[in-house]
Structures are given as structure tokens and as C-alpha cells.
Design goal:
Length: 271
């Protein structure tokens, strides 16, 4: 998340970002995100206990009480917003507050339990970090920043649904209506492929609008082709490990894609 926010900062300007914006911006964004994550841990404590990957979280195990978690969330969120408002700019603080409400309250308390499209609808909140970074530098919302948000938004469904396929039994036990449970595994695989193709198209748009150059385009196509390979492997390979391997690759994919944007931005040939 912080890497995506940092890339948003650097892509917003042709030169270097002022060090104080980097330090204060990323610190504030991290604190607000930590606050939202704490709310998620508190609200999902009972769900977390039923899932192997989350059963050791501090609130779920009782190492941190609900009250302690709420105090932590209140302090980190407040300090983060104050840093962003006074040391960065009010727009960045407002955007982070909106994301906090969206993820910490709307997604965590309602969407996650209400619909199998929870990831699609709530994905907008998790896709916002590049916009935070861009706004921290420019104090504005610009098309380039929104395009970065679109890329992460398209990435979110195949990323999380691959995990949901691997952990289907756990989500079912926790009574979370993830897509493989409500619509079946075959339908989920088709949706992963569909969104992966959409992601590939979105990933080349920075080149299409002149935001990046050929080095980024080649990287985006190569990384996207590998992602499509894993999405197709959901149908062609009879291996229970394919979904979790797809999930793991999706993390690597996003990291490398944004690093490619950053490197391309500062290459002489891309100026």
C-alpha cells in the first residue's frame, strides 16, 4: 500500500518529491491505514478465529482487548489525519478519512457479510493509495492518479478470489459469502479470468495516454501475460495449489508493475 502511494507521489511530478512530503505523507497514510486495519481486526475477531490465516491476530486471540484496539485505532487514525491535514494538505486528509470510513466501516461492517460482490464494491477503498500519494504532492485529483486507482481496482477481484478459492472451506465456516461459496468454483474461475483480462487492458492505458513509455509497456504486457497464464491455469491444471500460487503471483505482479511505472518515469527515454 505504501509503495503504491509512494509511486503515486513520484509520478505526479517530473522531478523529485520534496522529502517532507514523502515523510509526512507516507507516515500519515500509514497511520490512518493502521487505524482502519485495527477496526477490521476488532469487527472480525470471531471470523478470524475460524480461519487459519487469521486465527493468531491479536484481538482474535485476546492478546489485545476490544477497548485497547479501539483506543489504538482512535489514536493512530487521529494522529495520521492531523499529520496529513497540517503537514501535507487538507485534500489528502479528506481522501484518507473517506477511505477509512469506506474500509473500516462500510466494507468491514456491512459489505463483507452482505454480498459476494464485497470485493468488487469495497475494492475502491483499497485501490486509493496512489491517489493519496498524488494528492499529497499536487493537492489535486488528476486523471493520472485515477488511472492508477483503476489499475488496482481491476487487480483486486482476481487477487482476492484466488485466495477465496484456496480458502473456500474457511470462508464457508466463517459464514462470509465469498464468490466461490455463493456461485461455485467454476463461475469464480471465469470471473478471475475476466477481471485479469480487464486488468491487462487497464495496465497498458498509462502508455496509451502518454503517461509512460515503451519500457513500462513491455513490462506491463509481460507481467500481464503471466497473470493471464495463471488465470487460464485455473481451468487447465488439476492442481489444488494453482489458486494460492495465483494469489501469490498477484502480489508480485502489482509490486513489479508499479516499480516499472516508477523506473520508466525517470528513464531519460521516457521523458
Amino acid at each position: 500500500m505504501l509503495m503504491c502511494a509512494a509511486v503515486g507521489m513520484f509520478l505526479a511530478v517530473p522531478g523529485m518529491v520534496p522529502p517532507n512530503i514523502i515523510l509526512c505523507g507516507l507516515s500519515g497514510i500509514a497511520l490512518v491505514a493502521a487505524s482502519a486495519a485495527a477496526i477490521n481486526h476488532i469487527a472480525d475477531a470471531q471470523i478470524d478465529l475460524r480461519m487459519a490465516r487469521t486465527k493468531d491476530r491479536p484481538v482474535a486471540t485476546g492478546r489485545v482487548s476490544t477497548l485497547q484496539g479501539l483506543v489504538f485505532a482512535g489514536i493512530t487514525g487521529s494522529v495520521g489525519l492531523v499529520i496529513l491535514y497540517y503537514l501535507v494538505n487538507p485534500l489528502t486528509a479528506l481522501l484518507n478519512l473517506a477511505s477509512w470510513v469506506g474500509y473500516g466501516l462500510v466494507y468491514t461492517l456491512y459489505l463483507k457479510r452482505a454480498t459476494p460482490q464485497n470485493i468488487v464494491i469495497g475494492g475502491l477503498f483499497g485501490a486509493a493509495p496512489p491517489l493519496f500519494g498524488w494528492a499529497a504532492v499536487t493537492n489535486s485529483i488528476e486523471p493520472g492518479a485515477l488511472l492508477l486507482v483503476l489499475i488496482i481496482y481491476a487487480w483486486t477481484p482476481p487477487h482476492f478470489w484466488a485466495l477465496a478459492l484456496d480458502r473456500k472451506a474457511e470462508y464457508e465456516r466463517a459464514d462470509v459469502p465469498m464468490l466461490p461459496i455463493t456461485h461455485g468454483e467454476a463461475y469464480t474461475r471465469w470471473q478471475i479470468l475476466f477481471y485479469t483480462v480487464i486488468l491487462l487492458v487497464c495496465s497498458v492505458l498509462p502508455f496509451g495516454i502518454g503517461m509512460s513509455g515503451w519500457p513500462y509497456l513491455l513490462a506491463a504486457l509481460a507481467l500481464g501475460a503471466i497473470f493471464v497464464f495463471w488465470a487460464v491455469a485455473m481451468f487447465t491444471k488439476h492442481d489444488k495449489r494453482v489458486p494460492i500460487r495465483t494469489f501469490r503471483y498477484s502480489i508480485t505482479y502489482l509490486m513489479l508493475l508499479f516499480l516499472a511505472l516508477l523506473v520508466d518515469h525517470y528513464l531519460p527515454s521516457a521523458v
